[in-house]
């Protein structure tokens, strides 16, 4: 897999980013508008800077900058996903996308689900949790944890054939819609776990310790 990191403007888990960056996991790093400030703070130069720069307040004077108009039909993060795919990335870690304005957070989740539908693996990294997006047919293996919460939500009208093994509340080929809280607050029980889906896109909230 070719892996990209997108760094947006909300709360930034710089410790996680730096650890993964030091391991050479990120082939491309894209700063999304004011996410550039996060990278400047840790001395990491991005490969691409893009956005309409309404949050940053100025157009940065860097080599690879892509400026968009403020009035447009896609968010800066959605455009960053497209840039990542154009760069040949098929796995994307997203930072700075889970706090601040609630409408922005919901928009970020929707954009992540859409790019997952297009075949790109997406992981949003927060300060204490991560969100993995699964578009079926797919499965996610989670390492054993003594405790911790796992929640799953349908990101389209219905997710079909959802199975959960190794957590407190198992499921066997269930169909869940985006109008239910059935997948909220499952629990690790000290064993490894597996979440699989046959069709549809699922958002899986996991503790950072379970991020693989």
Report the average pLDDT across residues: 94
What is the overall silhouette?
Answer: globular
From the helix content, strand content and strand pairing, which structural class follows? alpha/beta
Q: What is the C-alpha radius of gyration, as a whole number of Å?
A: 17 Å
Order of helices and strands: EHEHEEHEHEEEEEEEEE
> Low-confidence runs (pLDDT<50, min 5 residues)?
none
CATH superfamily of the largest domain: Thiamin pyrophosphokinase, catalytic domain
Relative helix content = 10-25%
CATH class of the largest domain: Alpha Beta
Main beta-sheet strand count, sense and barrel state? 10 strands, mixed
**Strands of the biggest beta sheet: in what spatial order?**
4-3-2-1-5-6-7-14-9-12
Q: How many alpha or pi helices?
A: 4
Predict the CATH topology of the largest domain: Rossmann fold
Cα distance spanning the termini: 14 Å
Question: How would you explain this protein's 3D organization?
Answer:
With 212 residues, the chain is α/β, with parallel strands linked by helices. It has two domains: 125 residues, Thiamin pyrophosphokinase, catalytic domain (Rossmann fold), CATH 3.40.50; 77 residues, Thiamin pyrophosphokinase, catalytic domain (Rossmann fold, 3-Layer(aba) Sandwich). Helices cover 20% and strands 35% of the residues. The strands form two sheets. A ten-stranded mixed sheet has the order 4-3-2-1-5-6-7-14-9-12, with helices on both faces. Helix 3 runs parallel beside helix 4. The chain is globular. The mean pLDDT is 94.
């Amino acid at each position: 897999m070719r892996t990209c990191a997108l760094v947006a403007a909300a709360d930034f888990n710089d410790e996680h980013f730096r650890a993964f960056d030091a391991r050479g996991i990120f082939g491309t790093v894209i700063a999304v508008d004011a996410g550039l400030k996060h990278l400047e703070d840790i001395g990491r130069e991005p490969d691409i800077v893009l956005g309409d720069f309404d949050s940053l307040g100025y157009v940065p004077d860097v080599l690879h900058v892509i400026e968009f108009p403020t009035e447009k039909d896609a968010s800066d993060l959605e455009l960053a996903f497209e840039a990542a795919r154009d760069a040949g990335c098929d796995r994307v870690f997203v930072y700075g996308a889970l706090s601040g304005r609630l409408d922005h957070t919901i928009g970020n989740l929707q954009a992540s689900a859409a790019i997952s539908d297009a075949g790109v693996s997406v992981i949003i990294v927060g300060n204490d949790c991560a969100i993995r997006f699964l578009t079926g047919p797919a499965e996610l293996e989670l390492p054993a944890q003594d405790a911790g919460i796992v929640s799953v939500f349908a990101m389209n009208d219905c997710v079909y054939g959802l199975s959960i093994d190794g957590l407190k509340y198992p499921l066997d080929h269930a169909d869940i819609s985006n109008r239910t809280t059935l997948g909220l607050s499952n629990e690790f029980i000290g064993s490894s776990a597996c979440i699989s889906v046959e069709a549809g896109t699922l958002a899986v909230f996991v503790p950072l310790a379970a991020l693989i």
